[in-house]
Every structure is written in C-alpha cells, then in structure tokens.
Amino acid sequence: MKIESSCLTPPKTFRPATYEIPQYACDTHAHVVAADESTYPLVANRSYTPVPTPEDDYLAMLDATGMDRGVLVQISVYGTDNRYMLEVLRRHPDRLRGIGVVSPDVSERELTAMHEAGVRGLRLNVLYGGGVGLDAAQTLAAKITDMGWHLQLLLDARQLPELMPRLQKLTVPIVVDHMGHMPVAFGGQHPGFQALQHLLREHGWWTKLSGAYRISELPAPYDDVTPWAQALVEAAPDRVVWGSDWPHVAVAPMPDAGELRNLLATWVPDPAQRHRILVDNPARLYDFPKTEGSAS
C-alpha cells in the first residue's frame, strides 16, 4: 500500500540552534529524491511515494542547520538504482558520503565505482518495500569486508534477540538506524532494546540518534525518547552519530530538522560528547578527510 498523504513537503526554514554547532558537524542520515521521475523512476513495490527533494534542497538544509558534512542514504523508493545519489556525491567529494543499496550479486567493479563516489556502507531494509533484506547480509558483508565499509540495518529492535546469533557472525561493523526503530513505549527493559545496548557495548555496533518522531508517542520535543537516547550514548559514546532523517518521508506531521538537531542539547548536555557525536564519530565511520586538530 502506498503512503501518499503523509509524504509532505519538508520545511524550508528551521529552528535556530540552541547550542554552538561545532565545525565539521555531520548529519549522517538524509535522502535525496530527484525531480525528474522519468530519468530516475521509482520502483513499483515501494511503500510510499515521496515528494521531490533534490540536491539543492538538501544542501540548503545542511547549510541552514549548521552541518558542514552530510551522509546520504539510498532511499528505498529507488531500489538498487543508486544513480541519483551517486551523482550528488560525486559533486561534493569532501562534504558528502553515502550509503548504498545493492543486490547480493553486485560486482566488485560496481562496488569500487561506488567507493570512488563516496559510498562507505550498504543498507539492508526489512521495514519498507524496495529495499534489500537481511538474507543478503552474509554475502554482502563478505564483499565489503576489505573495503572498510559497514552494513546499515533498518529494522525494528524487537527483532534483534532472534537475529543476534546470525548477525554477530558478520565480519563488518553494523550500524542500526533510528535508535532501533522500536516504539519507546515498550520500555527500556524490553529484550529488543536490551539486545541493542548489548550489541553496542560488547560487539562494536553503532547506532544513529535519529528518527525520534518515528519511535515517540509524544509531539515534539519527544520527551519520552530522552532516556532511550541517553542509554544508547552511555552504552557506546564513541559509536553513536546523529542524523536528521530529512526529508522525513512517510510521516505526518512534518518535523523540523532544526528542532531535531536541538534535541542533542537535552540528550547530550556535555559539549565535548556532542562534539564526538557530531564530528569525531562520523568522521571515523564515514572516512571523511582528516582536518587540522581532528581527533579521528
């Protein structure tokens, strides 16, 4: 079923920052959607139809929210057709990195070309139509182990207890989207959330402090997510990153990326730790160019 009505146009203006945004801050999760659907067609088995959010809109959002760097994630509605994202990446080699979506039979040549464009990981998606699922995990992990890439998982953390034995065998780092994409109403003692914390602490996994509006039962500022986010930061302070999840597809009402960025002031009151989350951790995970004075 296509989710049409909830794919609203994201705002063009954003809440001002409530704390000093450090230089080289990175928004690690956003998507671009081309305006030209004839050149970049959407897959038939998609779960929703997004509005166009092309390159210029994306860069304007980064600028307005104070983000010097960004990571584009291949959106599910394009399936394994990464062309538009790769074109955007190639135009901004120092500022942007990407996470691709490929089929298990992807060639080494294609992966090499994606790496040269700025891709540093592959996404597996079990929540939305158009993605590549977990059945491909072992095959893809073997193909990217020597490239220094990671696998990014879009799943519901309630699935983790069952999946842990299989996922822990993978030979690459794992990044979990949207704090586990599990409703916080289930509580921090739920086996799924406990499993996520265990994987962060004991197995070197990562997670993104993103998508608060997807897991909260409250309106902004999503106060019920605060203990959830803080528990993840405590579990792995060097392996959490932040993302806006712009343009906030398949949800209503439309969030404000500036307000989402400002949540870090509550979730992570310590400026030094916020610097790690916004600058140092993503620089390491996504292989951004070294900068003077960089800790990564």
Spell out the helices and strands N to C: EHEHEHEHEHEHEHHEHH
Strand order of the largest sheet: 1-2-3-4-5-6-7-8
Strand content: 5-15%
Q: Structural class of the secondary structure composition?
A: alpha/beta
Helix tally equals: 10
The percentage helix is 25-40%
Radius of gyration (Å): 18 Å
Unreliable residue runs: 1-6
Can you give the mean pLDDT? 93
- Compute the separation of the termini in Å: 43 Å
User: For the report, how would you describe the main beta sheet?
Assistant: 8 strands, parallel
- Per DSSP E runs of 2 or more residues, the count of β-strands stands at 8
Global shape: globular
Task: Write a compact overview of the structure shown.
The chain has 296 residues and is of the alpha/beta class.
Question: Helices, strands, pairings?
Answer:
Layout: E1 26-30, H1 55-64, E2 69-73, H2 83-91, E3 96-100, H3 108-117, E4 119-125, H4 137-144, E5 150-154, H5 160-167, E6 174-176, H6 191-202, E7 206-209, H7 212-215, H8 226-235, E8 240-242, H9 257-267, H10 271-286
Parallel strand pairs: 1-2, 2-3, 3-4, 4-5, 5-6, 6-7, 7-8
Note down, in words, how this protein is organized.
With 296 residues, this protein is an alpha/beta fold. It is 33% helix and 12% strand. It contains ten helices and eight strands. The chain has helices at 55-64, 83-91, 108-117, 137-144, 160-167, 191-202, 212-215, 226-235, 257-267, 271-286; strands spanning 26-30, 69-73, 96-100, 119-125, 150-154, 174-176, 206-209, 240-242. The chain has an eight-stranded parallel beta sheet. Helix 4 links the parallel strand 4 (119-125) and strand 5. The chain starts with 25 loop residues before the first strand and ends in a 10-residue tail after the last helix.
